[in-house]
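A reminder from the course coordinator: this example appears on the midterm review sheet, so study it carefully.

Given structure:
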């Protein structure tokens, strides 16, 4: 298991309870899981889309592409995960709990993770994301 996958598992597994204080934290694991799945879907689609243009690839080249694109996804996810985890851990006051809910909502909306379903992104001709 690579380091990023291990880190993701630890973050997701540790979301329900802050063991140092015994208080319940907001549930951020579903948002993290949806974000990870959403970005992985995009990654796989883009790799598949470009494979035809790359011609015949060796096993090493295919593995390098996988490692590169997985690393990019991991880097993109670092900040949202860190923010979610920090706010969840600090949400002992009503204001922080409200902030946690706002951040979860913002990430959900920003990455189009509405209603727990992964929305398939549509790539428009202008090379920007378009609403499905």
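Designed residues:
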């Amino acid at each position: 298991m690579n380091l990023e996958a291990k880190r993701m598992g630890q973050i997701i597994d540790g979301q329900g309870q802050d063991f140092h204080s015994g208080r319940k934290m907001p549930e951020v694991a579903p948002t993290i899981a949806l974000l990870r799945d959403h970005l992985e879907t995009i990654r796989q689609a883009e790799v598949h889309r470009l494979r035809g243009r790359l011609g015949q690839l060796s096993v090493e080249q295919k593995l390098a592409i996988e490692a590169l694109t997985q690393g990019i996804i991991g880097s993109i996810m670092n900040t949202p995960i860190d923010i979610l985890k920090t706010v969840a851990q600090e949400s002992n006051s009503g204001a922080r709990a409200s902030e946690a809910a706002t951040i979860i909502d913002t990430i959900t909306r920003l990455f189009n993770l509405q209603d727990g379903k992964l929305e398939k992104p549509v790539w428009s001709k202008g090379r920007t994301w378009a609403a499905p």
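The chain is about 65% helix and 5% strand. Helices lie at 3-13, 29-54, 59-89, 94-110.
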